[in-house]
């Protein structure tokens, strides 16, 4: 069952960079941003990741953890994270379990060919594990700032 706004997100466990196992239940007490992106080291995905990197101290100040998710493997993630100096972990979702939970696999077109790919999407989960905001079909410019403002808003609520 896919996630729904203002409802608890089902617990999940996923392998991430730095040998970290990410479990939503273990993150209770902190807000969580999960952003899905199509592929490591591509222009839009790099720009988006850099935005989260550059605003990471502000996310930390807002009691918010950030995780990037794509279907790439951990080796690709480790290289991408290292090259871009991301201070947050990247989750490998090769089996698409998280992609399905968050319903981000969509029919896409590239050069006239159709394929199933990751729709750039971001989700903000509050410290109790409830989905508070979602952004689907994300356009990168200005996106990270909007997510940060929403995360900061959760701390005032």
UniProtKB/TrEMBL annotation:
Reactions accelerated catalytically: a hydroperoxide + [thioredoxin]-dithiol = an alcohol + [thioredoxin]-disulfide + H2O
SUPFAM superfamilies: Thioredoxin-like
EC number, as in UniProt: 1.11.1.24
One BP annotation, GO: cell redox homeostasis
GO molecular function per UniProt: thioredoxin peroxidase activity
Metal-binding listed as a keyword: no
Gene3D superfamilies (alphabetical): Glutaredoxin (3.40.30.10)
UniProt keyword annotations, A-Z: Antioxidant, Disulfide bond, Oxidoreductase, Peroxidase, Redox-active center
Recorded GO CC terms: cytoplasm
Catalytic-site annotation from UniProt: 45
Thioredoxin domain boundaries: 3-156
Family membership: Belongs to the peroxiredoxin family. BCP/PrxQ subfamily.
Subunit structure of this chain's protein: Monomer.
Protein task: Thiol-specific peroxidase that catalyzes the reduction of hydrogen peroxide and organic hydroperoxides to water and alcohols, respectively. Plays a role in cell protection against oxidative stress by detoxifying peroxides and as sensor of hydrogen peroxide-mediated signaling events.
Protein name in UniProt: thioredoxin-dependent peroxiredoxin
Lineage of origin: Bacteria, Pseudomonadati, Pseudomonadota, Gammaproteobacteria, Pseudomonadales
């Amino acid at each position: 069952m896919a996630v729904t706004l203002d409802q608890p997100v089902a617990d999940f466990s996923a392998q991430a960079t730095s040998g970290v196992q990410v479990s939503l239940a273990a993150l209770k007490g902190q807000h969580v941003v999960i952003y899905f992106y199509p592929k490591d080291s591509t222009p839009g995905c790099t720009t988006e990741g850099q935005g989260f990197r550059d605003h990471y101290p502000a996310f930390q100040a807002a009691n918010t953890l950030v995780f990037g998710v794509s279907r790439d493997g951990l080796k690709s993630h480790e290289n991408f994270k290292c090259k871009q100096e991301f201070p947050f972990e990247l989750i490998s979702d090769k089996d698409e379990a998280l992609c399905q939970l968050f319903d981000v696999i969509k029919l896409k077109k590239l050069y006239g060919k159709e394929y199933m790919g990751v729709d750039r999407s971001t989700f903000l989960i509050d410290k109790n594990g409830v989905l508070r905001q979602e952004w689907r079909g994300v356009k990168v410019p200005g996106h990270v700032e909007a997510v940060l403002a929403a995360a900061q808003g959760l701390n005032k609520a």
